[in-house]
Amino acid sequence: MWAISTHEFKNLFKSIKAIVIVVFLTGMSLLVASLAENFANQFGDINTEGHYTAGLSATIIFFGMLFVFILSHDTISSEAQNRTMRFLVNKTSRRSIVMGKALGITLFWLTSVLISLVIVSLVAKQFFFETFLQCSVFLFYGACTALLISSLSKKGSESLFFGIIVSILLPAISFATVFIDTVWIQWVKYLTPYYYMDLSIAYLPIVCLLSIIILTVSIKIFERRDL
Amino acid sequence: MNIIEVNDLSKSFGNKNVVNGITMKVNKGEIYGFLGRNGAGKSTFINMLTGIINPSSGSFSLLGEDKIDRVKNRIGVLPDYSSFYDSMTAYNHLRFFSRIQGFNPTKEIIEHTLETVGLEKAKKKKLSQFSFGMKKKLGIAQAIINEPELLFLDEPTSGVDVESAIQIKELIDKLNKNGQTIFMTSHNLNEVEDICTKIGIMKNGEIHSEGTLRELKTTYQSSLTAQIKVGPAINKHARQEIDQFLNNEFQQFDWEDNRLIVNIQEEDDIPVLIRMLINKKIDIYSVHLIEPTLEEVFLERDVAI
Ligand SMILES: Nc1ncnc2c1ncn2[C@@H]1O[C@H](COP(=O)(O)OP(=O)(O)OP(=O)(O)O)[C@@H](O)[C@H]1O
Ligand SMILES: [Mg+2]
């Protein structure tokens, strides 16, 4: 499991797409944080976590899913399609492979968020631990969902297609819950992480639990596949 | 303990039955050669045992364990159709794959393994620059690096040059002498004949014949051939008597100059022939027993079933 997660982690950092995304994330955070800093200087002290981290949080809530999916939608589907997976499944359990990948992807995002937050904290002169936790848990959910879609897809193109659809639908439906009262849409709200992001961090374990359920389903699906 | 034990194992893709209820076992220390035409289901069978595809029904155990995940670190596998990470070097592949199996090889072990398969010069090369045969060798390297107790090799020598094929054959033999049990498929019957201690012939998803090379050969319908070189001068009368005897006892025989060629049923027929010739005062210069090749056995079986 560790070997696979390290491999996944390093591979993500090696890709150009990942670097662009991390730079974008950091750029947005920094931009908003420095605006907040100017604001604070002009209008007295508003040194709250929200102002400094609004850029990062918003970027992650709106684009986080999409970013995770773009980078990791094919982590299982492509390896199954081009049959590199055949060398992995005869060496370790399929459960370890999926969990290793989930861990590697999550660690990649933790590191990226951490980089952005450290840079923001240089401006704000304090570290925003709550934001770090919230973003990490959100991205963990994203990683697990990406693995679910990847383990369901036969090909890389298939997982890309479904990944993009889901990464647009998930936030869209979540935001729709604010305006639409239909019962099923209200239910969906509790299954996606968006609703909990607005609440206190005490609700984060619920998101973790949802992610673990999604991960378990992915493992079961992957275990039944022929490679 | 049986190293491989398979019970009524089947696989179908859609409504096509590819493996039909195979029951078999492989003992410790054997080199089991699995033969069969293209599409017979050999790779499908190996892929089920190695966790690449799921059986439709039936069960099996490896190294006495039916939860295969528990013994994956004790087996080595060269799958049939598979590929590597193009941007990774040969060296890094071996290190990565070993680690997945929970084994952290030293630099010496990795280099030694690459050398064993003849890839020492390509150590730092990326896989995108590897030829088909080189990839096959790396496939063997990743299967043997952890000194597995059980080794599955699906066509280990197909696509490699003649010299490398011989080296791989010798390597398999050496690994086996070190105590590893090997299950392999091959279309190269000479190679199977040379190293395999047991052979299974698969057709239409079933094992139709199984046994040691000797067992397969003795049940071969066209039997054995005795080739006897006799003295140059045989008088006409003696020759007639001999022909008569052979006609009665063996039916199929032939003279090529002073060489008598007789199709016999078993080795015990040879003394009968020799006694008869001595009785007729014929000088015997040499006697050869010619066995059918595995190729002949295979082709005959394959047509017969
Ligand atoms: N994933 C799959 N889906 C559908 N059919 C398959 C699949 N894999 C294999 N088959 C079919 O199963 C049959 C057996 O294939 P298999 O690869 O096991 O044969 P083989 O004995 O290894 O042949 P070869 O000597 O060519 O390697 C073939 O007819 C093949 O078309
Ligand atoms: Mg095959």
From TrEMBL, chain A:
GO molecular function: ABC-type transporter activity
Entry's Gene Ontology cellular component terms: plasma membrane
A Pfam family of this chain: ABC2_membrane_2
Transmembrane segments: 12-36, 56-76, 97-121, 127-148, 160-180, 200-222
Entry keyword set: Membrane, Transmembrane, Transmembrane helix
Name this polypeptide is given: ABC transporter permease subunit
Organism: Halobacillus litoralis
Protein origin, superkingdom: Bacteria
UniProtKB/TrEMBL annotation, chain B:
Domain ABC transporter per the UniProt entry, residue ranges: 4-229
Keyword Transport: yes
Pfam family, one: DrrA1-3_C
Record's keyword annotation contains ATP-binding: yes
GO molecular function, one term: ATP hydrolysis activity
Sorted UniProt keywords: ATP-binding, Nucleotide-binding, Transport
Listed CDD domains: ABC_DR_subfamily_A
Family from the record: Belongs to the ABC transporter superfamily.
Name of the protein: ATP-binding cassette domain-containing protein
Organism of provenance: Halobacillus litoralis
Source taxonomy: Bacteria, Bacillati, Bacillota, Bacilli, Bacillales
